[in-house]
Specification:
This protein is mainly α. 46% of the residues lie in helices and 0% in strands.
């Protein structure tokens, strides 16, 4: 089993269906499937391109709904679990909104897809508490 790669917000990039950095590169077909899945779950309001769904990790100029990426870069840390203010209101909101998508995931995803989504996104708090490997 691969080690976890913990994103700024606690996502596990090593199992994320959009993380597209070696050795976790995705095919065009996999990225297209992810874009369709994101639409079905409600993460996006339309099916986006492979370029838009593809992720290379938490870079400072990435758009982030909760400004987590910018915050960790400003504090010179790898993820929120390393912050003295953890858990702040921002990351608590991130946890809550992420969890709000879990029922829809269970409705539209296969059992395998649900497990991937769970490991990649719905275990943020655990990942940040364990804080194993940083991006």
């Amino acid at each position: 089993m691969e080690d976890k790669i913990i994103a700024a917000c606690g996502n596990d990039c090593s199992v994320c269906p959009r993380y597209n950095k070696e050795p976790f590169a995705k095919s065009d077909k996999e990225l297209s499937h992810t874009a369709e899945l994101w639409y079905k779950i409600g993460y996006r309001d339309h099916i986006v391109s492979n370029d838009e769904i593809s992720c290379q990790g938490c870079m400072e100029d990435n758009w982030c709904r909760y400004n987590v990426v910018k915050c960790v870069h400003e504090k010179n840390i790898s993820n929120c679990g390393q912050c003295n203010d953890y858990p702040c209101a921002n990351i608590k909101e991130c946890f809550a909104v992420t969890q709000s998508f879990e029922p829809k995931c269970k409705e539209v995803c296969s059992k395998e897809e649900c497990e991937i989504m769970k490991r990649a996104f719905f275990e943020k708090e655990q990942n940040l508490q364990n804080n194993k490997i940083k991006i």
